[in-house]
C-alpha cells in the first residue's frame, strides 16, 4: 500500500469474512445458536482481531466496513436477514464495536507492557522513568515518557 492507509488490507479482510459468512449461512440453519456463536468467534472475529492494533489510525470508512462484517456475523448467529437492525443483536451477544475492540486491544497491550507481562520487544518501546537515588514521589508514578524518534 503506497499511502500506508491499510485500505487494501481491510478490503481483503472484508472479502474473506463475507465469503466465510456466505458459506456459514448455507449450514447455519441446522446448527444450534451456541455453535454459531463459537463459529463466529473462531472464524470471523479472529480475522477482525488479528493485528487490529495496527487499525488504530484507520479511516472511519474502513472502520465502518469492518463494523458491517460484525453486524453480518450477528445476523448470522440469530438467523435474521439484513433488513433488521443489528445494534440490539450485538448488545445481546456482548460484541464491542470494532473501534472499541481496537482501543481495548491497545489498552491491554499497554497494560501488559507496563506490568512486565508483555513480550520483550514491546517492553523496550515504552520507556519508564529512571529512579534517582532519592525517594521522590514521581519515582512511584507509572506515567510514560514521550519517546522521541
What does this structure look like?
- The chain is mainly α and 149 residues long.
- The chain is 57% helix and 0% strand.
- The chain contains six helices and no strands.
- The mean pLDDT is 85.
Structure keywords:
149 residues; mainly alpha; 57% helix; elongated
Short account of what is shown:
This protein is mostly helical.
Number of helices: 6
Taken from the alpha-carbon principal axes, the silhouette is elongated
How much helicity do the residues have? 55-70%
Structural class: mainly alpha
| Terminal-residue CA separation | 23 Å
Q: Radius of gyration in whole Å, from Cα? A: 20 Å
Task: Give the averaged pLDDT, no decimals.
Answer: 85
Largest sheet: none
The sequence of SSEs as H and E is: HHHHHH
Say how many strands there are: 0
Strand content: under 5%
Low-confidence stretches: none
Fold topology:
Layout: H1 7-28, H2 33-49, H3 60-78, H4 87-92, H5 98-114, H6 120-123
Helix pairs in contact: 1-2, 1-3, 2-3
Amino acid at each position: 500500500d503506497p499511502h500506508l492507509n491499510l485500505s487494501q488490507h481491510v478490503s481483503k479482510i472484508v472479502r474473506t469474512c463475507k465469503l466465510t459468512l456466505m458459506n456459514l449461512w448455507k449450514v447455519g440453519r441446522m446448527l444450534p445458536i451456541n455453535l454459531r456463536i463459537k463459529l463466529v468467534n473462531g472464524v470471523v472475529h479472529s480475522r477482525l482481531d488479528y493485528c487490529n492494533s495496527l487499525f488504530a489510525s484507520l479511516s472511519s470508512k474502513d472502520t465502518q466496513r469492518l463494523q458491517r462484517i460484525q453486524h453480518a456475523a450477528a445476523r448470522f448467529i440469530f438467523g435474521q436477514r439484513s433488513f433488521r437492525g443489528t445494534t440490539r443483536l450485538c448488545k445481546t451477544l456482548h460484541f464491542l464495536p470494532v473501534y472499541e475492540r481496537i482501543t481495548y486491544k491497545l489498552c491491554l497491550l499497554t497494560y501488559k507492557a507496563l506490568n512486565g507481562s508483555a513480550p520483550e520487544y514491546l517492553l523496550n518501546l515504552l520507556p519508564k522513568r529512571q529512579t534517582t537515588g532519592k525517594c521522590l514521589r514521581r519515582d512511584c508514578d507509572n506515567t510514560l515518557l514521550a519517546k522521541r524518534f
